[in-house]
Design goal:
The complex is a heterodimer. Chain A is of the alpha+beta class. In chain A, about 20% of the residues lie in helices and about 30% in strands. Chain A has one domain (about 1-270): Endonuclease/exonuclease/phosphatase (Deoxyribonuclease I, Chain A), CATH 3.60.10.10. Chain A has six helices and 19 strands. In chain A, a hairpin with a 7-residue loop joins strand 6 (about 85-90) and strand 7 (about 95-105). The radius of gyration of chain A is 18 Å and the shape is globular. The N and C termini of chain A lie close together (about 5 Å). Chain B has helices at about 20-35, 105-115, 120-135, and strands spanning about 40-50, 50-60, 65-75, 85, 100-105. In chain B, strand 3 and strand 4 form a beta hairpin. Chain B has one domain. Chain B has a five-stranded antiparallel β-sheet. Chain B starts with 19 loop residues before the first helix and ends with a helix. Chain B has three helices and five strands. Chain B is α+β, with helices and mostly antiparallel strands. Classes of the chains: A alpha+beta, B alpha+beta. The interface of A and B includes residues 77, 110 and 117 of A.
Chain lengths: ~270, ~140
């Protein structure tokens, strides 16, 4: 079992909170976006507690920072850009998987259509990398800056991420004589009010006709070949660090003290 | 009777404008030469809906298991200019997305690519990859 933590830290360092989460949940892989701290300082902080043994998994995608409980040699990048870092996770005697860590463009700068076109490019790149490594055990994790229902996520030539395991288990679908491989998106199950669960990962309130308030921009989506190794029930949008709440009194993320995004925790059985 | 139907085409002259993809491929070749083939440039093209062509310029390190970094992209229609491209880095790495700009001519595209290739970000990426390649060979 490999436990992943993803958090958009909203241009803050949040070293203490990250270390506490790592200890509390026995995290193996930390993936951060908008991390404003010094990676070396973060590493020292991580290794000063009970969770010692972390490494910086270096890469050239500046929007993503990764720390691993194991040697970063087991998590080398194969493709990177300003927006994504694609890495092979090759732990000894474990199944190899491909991890796409992403922090995609915000709607502050890109229209929904432009985001969708970028997903087309990313989907094509992922398929190329899967062909290179010879398998489709791929997961995407990060701040996609899109909800699970938006064009970039659901369109066939985009990420083609569907809400249903039975549908995803068909592996692919054909549109206009072209075949597109599925992703399964377990984040659909996290929308709306549930006991002890926040309705999303990011809250946005604006006086306009269409406003969802709660959004799930931070996601993990998996190829059908990884579905059985990713328990959807164990994907958690975290609202606490120990006993400290990451929320304001009205349930929104406490963006002043922490981040405007909530952290995401999930496990992959390898 | 087919001979009775005239050829209605005008004389077709090839444009003197250098296609954007040719400029990119030239820079890709130049990178390989400049790094003694330790790094290679790669131009990938996809056709998007509406007849647009998007060219990605990648830096590839063959000895690092073909590690690839996508440096920048440009996009144009069937007419090769204008070209749309992301605004080059200004040093603000936390900026969510560079806005795009429109490049009207071949000369302006050459200026744009020169600026991208000479940016601090590109220098950092290329030198970092070179160091890794040398450390592993």
């Amino acid at each position: 079992m490999v436990t992943f933590l993803f958090w958009n830290t909203n241009r803050k360092s949040l070293q203490e909170e990250i270390r506490a989460l790592v200890q509390e949940h026995q995290v193996d892989v930390i993936i951060l976006s908008e991390f404003a701290g010094n990676p070396v300082s973060m590493l020292e902080h991580l290794n000063s507690g009970r969770s010692a043994g972390f490494h910086i998994a270096t890469g050239l995608c500046e929007r993503i920072r990764i720390f691993t409980r194991f040697s970063s040699n087991f998590f080398r990048p194969t493709y990177e850009s300003e927006w994504i870092s694609i890495r092979r996770l090759r732990l000894p005697a474990r199944l190899e998987i491909l991890v796409v860590a992403a922090h995609l463009a915000s709607k502050l700068y890109q229209s929904e259509d432009s985001q969708a076109f970028e997903c087309l490019e990313i989907a094509r790149t992922i398929i190329e990398q899967e062909e290179r490594v010879g398998h489709q055990r791929t997961l995407i994790v990060g701040d996609l800056n899109m909800n699970p229902f938006e064009k970039g996520l659901v369109s066939a030539n985009g990420l083609n991420a569907v809400m249903s395991r039975p549908v995803a288990s068909r592996k692919s679908r054909v549109v206009m004589s072209r075949e597109y491989p599925f992703f399964f998106n377990p984040m659909w199950a996290h929308f709306g009010d549930r006991v002890d669960h926040p309705p999303g990962t990011y809250y946005y309130d604006r006086s306009e006709h269409v406003n969802y308030y709660w959004n799930i921009l931070d996601q993990v989506i998996v190829r059908p070949d990884l579905m059985d190794r990713c328990d959807g029930e164990r994907i958690r949008i975290l609202t606490k660090v120990g006993k400290v709440s990451l929320l304001l009194g009205d349930g929104r993320p406490n963006y002043q003290s922490f981040s405007d995004h909530l952290p995401l925790l999930f496990e992959i059985q390898l | 009777m087919a001979d009775a139907i005239p050829d209605l085409w005008p004389d077709i002259e090839q444009t003197q404008v250098v296609p954007p993809i040719a400029i990119l491929r030239q820079q890709a070749a130049a990178l390989a030469k400049k790094t003694n083939y330790l790094l290679q440039g790669q131009v990938e093209t996809i056709t998007t809906s509406g007849g647009r062509f998007t060219h990605s310029f990648n830096v590839v390190a063959p000895s690092l298991d073909n590690y690839t970094y996508k440096l920048f992209w440009i996009e144009h229609g069937a007419e090769q200019y204008p070209v749309v491209a992301p605004t080059p880095e200004t040093g603000l790495s936390t900026r969510p997305l560079p806005r795009t700009l429109t490049i009207e001519s071949q000369d302006d595209l050459l200026d744009y690519i020169r600026e991208v290739l000479n940016s601090d970000k590109t220098k950092k990426i290329v030198s970092s990859l070179l160091a890794q390649v040398k450390a592993t060979t």
